[in-house]
Amino acid sequence: MKYPFSIDCCTLEAFDTLDSKGNIEHGYDIIILSGVLEHLANPADNLKLLHYYLAANGKLIIQVPNEDPGSNAKFFERVNYAHIIYFTACSLTEMCRLAGFEVEKVHRPNGKTIVAILRRAMVARPNYLTAFEFYYLYLKYSINVEITSRYIKYKRALGSWLAQ
Q1: In angstroms, rounded to a whole number, what is the distance separating the alpha carbons of residues 119 and 75?
Q2: DSSP character at residue 99
Q3: Of the ranges 9-23, 31-45, 66-80, 85-99, which one carries the lowest mean pLDDT score?
Q4: Which of 54, 78, 104, 137 has CB atoms 3.0–4.6 Å from 120's, for a disulfide?
Q5: Could you give the C-alpha distances from 12 to 46, 58, 122, 141, 162, in angstroms and in order?
Q6: Residue 164 has pLDDT above 70, yes or no
Q7: Which string of DSSP letters, residue by residue, matches 62-90?
Q8: Is the pLDDT of residue 138 over 80?
Q9: Given its phi and psi angles, is residue 68 left (phi above 0), alpha (psi -120 to 50 degrees) or beta?
């Protein structure tokens, strides 16, 4: 059966190869990341890259495990150490907004996963989300307030030291 559209399946690193062949002249209509972001060291960088590859009205669909202990009762029983980043609905949506996406819908279909449907914003945010900023967001929306306040003090001290 022949479909009236094409599907490219690849790793994030392979997007450059696809682009160099002229395959994505106007960008992709839909990009789906299922079980990907939690394995990346700096997912904000990858979201910025995907923003570039989406068409003007393109959509990004993200599925990640729900790592919010408040809504996932089995969180502490099944911590997955293969995951580099643990997302809650709040941390995922905030990171996506900062990467230049408009959040259309976020839902937790079974309590164990988070699905976000995003639309490419007309203009990507000019500010670049650094690893420090992403980690701050992660801590801000995590449950450990003590660690978050320590991180903020560290960032302020580091910022004043670098300004000298």
Answers
A1: 29
A2: T
A3: 9-23
A4: 54
A5: 8, 17, 22, 26, 33
A6: no
A7: EEEE---TTT-TTGGG---TT-S----HH
A8: no
A9: beta
Give every CB contact of residue 133 below 8 A, 6+ residues apart in sequence: 44, 98
Q: Are 102 and 112 in contact (CB under 8 A)?
A: no
Mean pLDDT to the nearest integer, 71-97:
74
**Cut 0.85: pTM above it:** no
22, pLDDT greater than 60: no
Look at strands 28-34 and 113-120 and give their pairing: unpaired
Q: Structural domain boundaries of the chain?
A: 23-163
CATH of domain 23-163: 3.40.50.150
Confidence at residue 126, expressed as pLDDT on a 0 to 100 scale: 46
